[in-house]
Amino acid sequence: MAVLNGDVLHSEDRLGGNPVTLAKVAEFQEWLDVCVLEEMASTGSTYTWNDKWKHNRVYSKLDWVFINGERSDEMPGCRAHFMHEGGSAHNPIHVSLLADKPKHKRPFKYCNMWNAHPQFKDIPTLGWQMEGCQIYKVVMKMKGLKQTLRRLHVQYFSNLNREVNSLRQKVKTVQEQLQVNPMCLLLLKEEKEVGREFKRESYLVEMLLAQRSKATWLELGDDNTNFSYRMC
């Protein structure tokens, strides 16, 4: 990759002033061909320099970011962004080299904590009756079951950590109040109710963490990895 403050490369790279001639850009283009470089995809300002202190202003694209084809294939998401010049005559350039991460559809994973929900036992029977051959019915039933369980997770389990932290704070607040007024029946009742809910939600989080840690061990534990040695 090369970031250059050079000269115009095309006839449309200058606005105002003398027109761009072929002889002016030929040497620059020849150098790019020898080095096998191409212009990096860019966004932002079209022109990167201007003589803003003169009356008849001239705009030119003098700043460039080039990359070779091999690196471009390895990092298809890299971009150059030409920002506003601010107080300078040249526009600063922000180059992002992060490659586009391939988007994979997340596989369905069963969570043991779903068993604790009172509606869970009724979910497998929902939409279980359908027409078609046996294989078709099995596939469609499993597909429908996955969608129903995902909705259950989003509705009741997606914010477990936040709920546990909120309940922990409530328990702390009630217990602090009990230190001031230890015989208050309302506070004692509230502590019992909030504490029961806190234990329930904490248990669900523990179930999820235990399942995740087991899955991580199954994936990495038997390999000769840093994870395996850290567990020893």
From TrEMBL:
Domain of life: Eukaryota
Name of this protein: Non-LTR retroelement reverse transcriptase
Lineage per the UniProt record: Eukaryota, Viridiplantae, Streptophyta, Embryophyta, Tracheophyta
